[in-house]
Design brief:
By secondary structure, the chain is mainly beta. The protein has one helix at 83-89; strands spanning 24-28, 32-35, 47-53, 58-64, 69-70, 78-80, 96-100, 102-103, 109-112. β1 and β2 (32-35) form a beta hairpin. The radius of gyration is 16 Å and the shape is globular.
């Protein structure tokens, strides 16, 4: 087996695109949620609204200045995820799930955490 540089192993989502610039949300079993910087449009916002649709296996989120859940951490991109939401999103024994997000016309970011036939995000 030949050695391969880790620089050649980096997955890019486009020319010169860094993974943190891809809109995504990560939920961890320990209760921490994390959004990438790409979710912010303009200045970072101090709060987040994060919703789960268990039937469609989708999440949606929006950042702003007046939601109830605070964004924390040195870079202001982490938030607390309640146990019930974690149980919906994470599979049995699954420690973490990263969901890519798409911005809809209604201003919300949408992502999938499971495979479901049919349905749309309702935007």
């Amino acid at each position: 087996m030949a050695f391969v540089s880790i620089n050649e192993m980096t997955v890019r989502n486009g020319p010169n695109q860094c993974p943190r610039r891809t809109p995504a949300v990560t939920v961890r079993r320990n209760g921490i949620g994390h959004i990438t910087i790409a979710v912010f449009e303009g200045p970072k916002q101090p709060t987040i609204e994060f919703q789960v649709d268990a039937e469609l296996k989708k999440v949606r989120l929006k950042t702003g200045g007046d939601f109830k859940r605070k964004l924390n951490g040195q870079v202001g991109m982490t938030f607390a995820v309640p146990k019930k939401a974690r149980e919906q999103i994470l599979g049995e024994g699954e420690p973490v799930k990263k969901m890519l997000l798409t911005k809809a016309d209604d201003g919300w970011w949408y992502g999938n955490y499971g495979v479901v036939s049919g349905g749309s995000h309702g935007a």
